[in-house]
From TrEMBL, chain B:
It comes from the Bacteria. This is ABC transporter permease. GO terms for cellular component: plasma membrane. One of its GO terms (molecular function) is transmembrane transporter activity. It is found in: Cell membrane. Signal peptide: none annotated. Keywords: Cell membrane, Membrane, Transmembrane, Transmembrane helix.
Length: 351, 372
C-alpha cells in the first residue's frame, strides 16, 4: 500500500543534492529562503495531507504525524489530517489541498514529493495560506516551503558504523525499490563503509523495481535478500526498505548478525521489539522536527519560503545510539560527522 | 433475441440497484457501529457532488474506468477473463508516452501526433494481450494464468525502460523519473468547465466512441454475434462453423487494444508524461465496473461514474470526519453483493420464465383436452 514511499525518500535525496549545492556551508536549515517573515496569522489551522499509508505506517507518515501531534499539544492549534489513496491522480491530490484551503486551513503540509504538481497548482490560488512540501525542492512559490533531508549524509555515518563493527569486512545494503533516490542511501552508505575500511565489500540488493513499490512493504522479500547477503559473508545489513526492513532484521537475528535501522530510531519502535537486539544504530530522519518547526515558524510569523535542507549540520538527519551497542565507537563516528559538517568530507548523492 | 418487456428491464436493474442499496445499508450500519454519523457522510457526499471540481474529477476518473470496463467486458462476452488489462494499459501508456514525447514527433501536425499515439497504445495493448491469446490457442494455457503473469512482466519491463539510460529522463528540479514530456501539440486539450479548476478530459469523446463501437460490435455485427455465441457454447459454435481459436484470438486482441487506451485520457489530458506516479490499478477497477454494469455499454458507464464519484468524494468524507475507508468498504460490498444479486435474479428469472411457459402450454393444451 505504501507505493510512493520510496519515491518520497528518493525525492528528499534528490532535493538534497540541490540543497547542498546551494547551501552546503549553512549551519541553519533555510539557506535560500525567498521571502522574509510574514505577519503571524491570528489563528492557525493546520491541514496535513499524508502520502499513501497515512498515520500508522510505522515510518515516514508516522514521523510527520509525531511532529503534528507535538505542535498540536504545545500550541493548541486546530489540525485536520487527510490521507492519500492508492493509485490516485494529481487532480485528486490537488483537490485534497484545495479542500483544506477552502475549509479555512492556513497552514498546509503536503507529505511526500508526489504532491509536487498538485501543490504547484493549488498554492497559486491560495496566496494567503502557507504551504510546505516534504522531500521535494519543487515547486518554487512565495507561499511554499520545501523541506528536504540529507539522507546520504546520515547514511554515510551508519556506513562508518557498519565498517567499524563488521568483523568479516563484508556488509549489505538492501534498497526497498530501485529509484535514483534510494540509490542515494546506497551511495552515502558505501562511501561511509569505505571511509573506514577501504577494502570492504558492500553487497547491494534492491527488492523491487518501480513502479512495483511492494519492496517497501514486504518483510519476506527483506528476509530473502538478507539471507542471501549473510550467506555470502556479510555481518551487517542496512535495509533502506521501509516495512521490509523488519524481515531483514529477523534474518540477521537468526544468523547472529547486525542490522541498521532507517528513518526512525528503530531500536525503540514497539513494532520491532522482538528484533531490537540486532539493531546497533539507525539513520534517523527527523521529519517530525521539520513539520513542527514549520508550524511553529508560521505561528510566530517567521514563515520562510523556498528550500530548507535538514542535514547533519542542522540535526535534520543523525545516527541513533539507543541500545548502547556502538558506545565504543561513538567518538569516531562523531569525528566523521564533524568532518561532514565542516565540509572536509563531501558525501556523494549520486552514483 | 431480446424483447424489452417491463419485467426484463426491471430484472436487469434489480441486481445492480439492489446491490447498491445493500451496500449503502451495510455502510450506514458500519458507520453507526463505529460511532460516526451516516447523516454527516451523506451530507458531505452531497456537498462534494455539488462542487463542480469534484464532478469534473469524477467524470475524468470515470473515463479511464469505463475504458477499462469495456476492455474487460469484451473478454467476458467470450467467457475469457482478461486480468491482464492492468499490465496492458500500463505498458501501452508508457510506450505511447515515450513515442508522443519523442523529439521527432514535434514537427508533426497535432492531429497526426495524437492519432499516432492512440494507434501505438492500441497496438501495444493488443500485442501484450495477444501473447496470452497465442498461448491459449496454441498450447491451451489458461488466459487467467498468463495474463496475471504478463502483468508482472509488464511491471518489470516498464521499470527497465523507465530509466534515464533508456526511454526516460530525470527532470532537474523534480524527483520523479518520467518519459520526455509531451509538448503542447501532442496533448489533447481539456474542456473548461465553469466553476471548476480542472478541465474535462478531451478524450471523453474517445471513451464515448469506444462505448458506441462496443455496442455496435456485439449488437449489430456478425463478428460480435460469433464471439458471444462461442462464449455461450463452444460446441454449438463449432457445430455452426465458427472457429473457436479465431474468436479467442480476435476477442483478446480487441480487449487488449481497448485496454491500451485506458491510460491515454490521463496521459494526454493531464500528466503529459509517464512517470513513477502514473495511476496504476485501473485494470482491476475495470473488472469491478464491468461486473456492476453487466457488460452493458450504458450500464458500465453508470457504474464507472459511480466509482469515479466515490473515489473523488473520499476527501470530502475525510474532512467531515468520516473515515475515507468507508468508500473502499462500499465498493467492496457492491462488488460482492452484485455477484450474489445476479445469481438470485437469474434464478428468479428462470423460475418466472418456466412459470410463463407452463401457463402458456396449459392454455394451449386445455382446448385439446376438451375435444378428446
Amino acid at each position: 500500500m505504501r507505493r510512493m514511499r520510496g519515491v518520497r525518500l528518493a525525492a528528499g535525496l534528490f532535493a538534497l543534492g540541490i540543497g547542498l549545492a546551494s547551501c552546503a556551508s549553512d549551519t541553519q536549515p533555510g539557506g535560500d529562503g525567498g521571502t522574509s517573515g510574514a505577519p503571524a496569522p491570528s489563528t492557525v489551522k493546520v491541514g496535513l495531507a499524508y502520502d499513501i499509508g497515512g498515520r500508522g505506517d510505522q515510518s515516514f507518515n508516522d514521523s510527520a504525524a509525531r511532529g503534528l501531534d507535538k505542535a498540536k499539544s504545545e500550541f493548541g492549534v486546530e489540525v485536520t489530517e487527510l490521507e492519500a489513496a492508492q493509485g490516485e491522480t494529481d487532480a485528486q491530490k490537488e483537490d485534497r489541498l484545495r479542500q483544506l484551503a477552502e475549509s479555512g486551513h492556513n497552514v498546509i503540509i503536503a507529505v511526500g514529493f508526489a504532491y509536487e504538481k498538485a501543490l504547484s497548482a493549488a498554492a497559486a490560488d491560495y496566496p494567503e495560506a502557507k504551504f510546505a512540501i516534504i522531500d521535494s525542492a519543487a515547486p518554487e512559490a512565495a507561499n511554499v516551503a520545501n523541506l528536504t533531508f540529507a539522507e546520504h549524509e546520515g547514511s554515510f555515518l551508519v556506513g562508518v558504523v557498519a565498517g567499524l563493527k563488521s568483523k568479516t569486512g563484508n556488509v549489505g545494503f538492501i534498497g526497498g525499490v530501485n529509484t535514483p533516490l534510494i540509490q542515494k542511501f546506497e551511495v552515502g552508505f558505501e562511501q561511509g563503509v569505505k571511509a573506514v575500511k577501504p577494502d570492504a565489500t558492500v553487497q547491494v540488493k534492491y527488492l523491487t523495481q518501480p513502479p512495483d513499490f511492494t519492496g517497501f512493504n514486504d518483510p519476506a522479500k527483506g528476509t530473502t535478500a538478507a539471507n542471501g547477503m549473510l550467506d555470502a559473508g556479510a555481518d551487517v545489513i542496512y535495509p533502506a526498505a521501509g516495512g521490509s526492513g523488519a524481515g531483514a532484521f529477523e534474518a540477521a537475528k537468526a544468523k547472529g548478525a547486525m542490522g541498521i535501522g532507517v528513518d526512525s530510531d528503530q531500536y525503540n519502535l514497539p513494532a520491532l521489539a522482538n528484533v531490537k537486539d540486532v539493531i546497533i544504530t539507525s539513520m534517523v530522519k527527523n521529519v517530525d522536527v521539520a513539520v513542527y518547526d514549520f508550524i511553529k515558524a508560521v505561528k510566530d510569523g517567521q514563515f520562510k519560503s523556498g528550500l530548507q535542507v535538514y542535514d547533519l549540520a542542522s540535526g535534520g538527519v543523525s545516527f541513533a545510539t539507543s541500545g548502547g551497542k556502538i558506545d565504543d565507537i561513538v567518538p569516531q563516528v562523531e569525528e566523521y560527522k564533524e568532518k561532514i559538517v565542516s565540509g572536509e568530507i563531501q558525501v556523494k548523492d549520486t552514483k | 433475441m431480446r424483447t424489452l418487456s417491463a419485467r426484463s428491464v426491471l430484472l436487469g436493474l434489480a441486481a445492480p440497484l439492489g446491490a447498491l442499496l445493500f451496500a449503502v445499508l451495510v455502510c450506514a450500519l458500519i458507520l453507526i457501529v463505529s460511532g460516526h454519523s451516516p447523516v454527516t457522510a451523506v451530507d458531505s457526499l452531497l456537498t462534494s457532488a455539488s462542487r463542480p471540481r469534484t464532478t469534473v474529477n469524477s467524470i475524468n476518473s470515470a473515463i479511464g474506468y469505463y475504458l477499462a470496463a469495456v476492455a474487460v467486458a469484451i473478454g467476458f462476452r467470450m467467457k475469457l477473463f482478461n486480468i491482464g488489462v492492468d499490465g496492458q494499459y500500463r505498458l501501452a501508456a508508457m510506450l505511447s508516452a515515450a513515442l508522443a514525447g519523442a523529439a521527432f514527433m514535434e514537427s508533426l501536425p497535432s492531429f497526426l501526433r495524437v492519432t499516432m499515439t492512440v494507434v501505438a497504445a492500441m497496438l501495444v495493448g493488443a500485442v501484450w494481450a495477444g501473447i496470452a491469446a497465442l498461448l491459449k490457442v496454441t498450447r491451451g494455457v489458461s488466459e487467467v494464468i498468463t495474463t496475471i503473469m504478463l502483468n508482472a512482466i509488464a511491471t518489470n519491463l516498464v521499470a527497465y525502460l523507465l530509466n534515464p539510460d533508456r526511454l526516460a529522463e530525470a527532470v532537474p528540479g523534480s524527483n520523479n523519473i518520467s518519459t520526455r514530456p509531451i509538448t503542447e501539440g501532442g496533448q489533447v486539450p481539456g474542456i473548461a468547465i465553469p466553476g471548476s479548476t480542472s478541465a474535462l478530459f478531451g478524450l471523453v469523446f474517445l471513451a464515448v466512441a469506444v462505448g458506441v463501437g462496443y455496442w455496435f460490435l456485439f449488437g449489430r455485427t456478425r463478428l460480435g454475434f460469433e464471439i458471444k455465441a462461442t462464449g455461450l457454447s463452444e460446441s454449438a459454435a463449432v457445430a455452426s462453423g465458427v472457429s473457436v481459436k479465431k474468436m479467442v484470438l480476435l476477442s483478446m486482441l480487441l480487449s487488449g487494444a481497448v485496454a491500451g487506451l485506458i491510460g491515454l485520457p490521463q496521459l494526454l489530458g493531464s500528466s503529459h508524461s509517464y512517470a513513477l506516479d502514473f495511476p496504476p490499478g485501473l485494470g482491476f477497477i475495470g473488472i469491478a465496473v464491468a461486473l456492476l454494469g453487466r457488460n452493458h455499454p450504458i450500464g458500465m458507464a453508470f457504474a464507472a461514474l459511480l466509482w469515479g464519484f466515490l473515489d473523488n468524494s473520499s476527501t470530502s468524507l475525510d474532512i467531515a470526519g468520516v473515515p475515507r475507508e468507508i468508500v473502499l468498504i462500499m465498493q467492496g460490498v457492491i462488488v460482492l453483493s452484485v455477484v450474489v444479486a445476479y445469481e438470485l435474479v437469474r434464478r428468479y428469472r428462470v423460475r418466472a420464465e418456466q412459470r410463463d411457459v407452463g401457463r402458456a402450454l396449459a392454455i394451449q393444451k386445455s382446448p385439446e383436452e376438451v375435444s378428446v
